[in-house]
Amino acid sequence: MFFGRDDEIRALRGLIEAPKPQIAVVYGRRRIGKTSLISNATDKSAALVIEGIEGGSKQEQIESFLGQVSEQLRRDLTGRAPASWQEALLILHRALGRRRMVIVFDEFQWLANYRQELVSALKMVWENYLSRAPGRSLILCGSIASFMTTRVIRSSAFYGRTDLVIHLQGFRLGETAAMLKRHGFGEVLDAQSFTSGVPKYLEMLAAAPSIQTGIERLAFRRDGYFVGEHDRVFVSHFGSNSDMERIVRALVASPYGLSRRELAARAGVNEGGGLSNQLFDLEAAGFIHSHRPLDKVANSRLIRYFLTDGYLRFFYAFIRPRLKQIRAGGRQRDHFAGIRQGGAFRSWMGRAFELVCIDHTDRIAELLGFSGVDYEVGPWFRAPRKGLPGVQIDLAFDRGDRVITLCEMKRQTAPLGKAVIAEVERKAALLEAEHPRKTIQRVLVVDGDVSREVTNSGYFFRIIQAKDMV
């Protein structure tokens, strides 16, 4: 069944039904549900869907393109394949005649072989031929975000010509809860932490009797889907670029982030322009995020990079170290039950919960009643200096009403005791010293019970339970 994406479907259908021909670009990492979204948005419209071939040459792409057009239009256009994309697109134009049609190019980066020829040819043929018939719209869909943003959206061919851009991302907690409606909130939060809301992964977990059983079967059995998914996703995005994996592994070892200089040193890569491109590609794919301290400029050297993709974080922490055992098969062990009992997993889940909260900052602002106020949101950190201790606050809102909302995020099984107050007060004191003219508002976001001494202390402006973010 198809879940969520109401806003995106509404936007795509509005574009399709517009009186003038329009262009949409849909992009996002693999498994995120782009094809399903487009299929649902076009279910009541005549649509021609052409998909690229991973790794195919230009000539193979053109031949496959004509074959798919022939099959869907029920016309044989597969004679001698033309040598250029312009010729191939003009064949499509003649075959369509005056038909109303939504034209979808799926995995567009593969069709284009990551080059500019198809982009330029499509711009010319669309403007001069394909868009001249009524009831036409064009949807370009791709899983390589860096190609779709730099070579399409911001290219000289399509710059300013796209009417709708959708960067499709993982489900939020509410959508995940709807998809896993037979599971309790604890399992919903587990699933969100492991998958970052990737619909394909959630669909597979939903079929299991429990999320724990699903993770065991999918991640710790020889034929488990998650065992080989790293290679399928990572290679499809970045090929055999070993620097990319070194960067990711360095970030895995530093869950609270690294500066550019620290990252280059720990990954063993050059700090020059090549690293800028690699970080852009990883962030465009949605695997990492960059954050600057709230009070620093956009190009600050204090920007830190974090690995945020739930599956990659889980793979490198718990699947990859056991790959030899997993692939050996033999007597099946319940790996995951043992992993869950360890301190490393509890730490991992604590950071995963923080990342889920960071993905829901708009909901937190709404719950706290300041969503209508201008604000910047992100981490706030200071390195130790001049005898002062360092500090990292993982989520703070710097608000236009001269309030800074400091959020402490905790997920645990035992009731949260008063030690959390001392922990937050140390951070708040350093924040107050840096911003003496602003009010520091202390908020606790928690999954689990909070002791009576904490709730009765009145220390926190608000205690938000994780389930309230749904």
Q: Would you kindly provide a written description of the structure presented here, covering whatever features stand out?
A:
- The protein is of the alpha/beta class.
- The protein is built from 22 helices and 13 strands.
- The protein has helices at residues 6-16, 34-41, 58-73, 85-96, 108-111, 117-128, 145-153, 173-179, 185-195, 199-206, 211-219, 225-238, 242-252, 260-267, 273-284, 310-319, 323-328, 335-340, 343-358, 361-368, 419-434, 452-457, and strands spanning 22-27, 47-51, 101-106, 136-142, 164-167, 258-259, 288-291, 304-307, 375-382, 391-399, 403-411, 439-447, 462-465.
- It has a 5-stranded parallel beta sheet with strand order 2-3-4-1-5. Strands 9-10-11-12-13 form a 5-stranded mixed beta sheet. A 3-stranded antiparallel beta sheet has the order 6-8-7.
- Helix 22 (452-457) links the parallel strand 12 (439-447) and strand 13 (462-465).
- The mean pLDDT is 93.
What structural class do helix, strand and pairing data support?
Answer: alpha/beta
> How many DSSP-defined strands?
13
Order of adjacent strands in the largest pleated sheet: 2-3-4-1-5
Q: Give the % helix.
A: 40-55%
Query: Separation of termini?
Result: 20 Å
- Specify the overall morphology: globular
Mind telling me the C-alpha Rg? 25 Å
The quaternary structure here is single chain
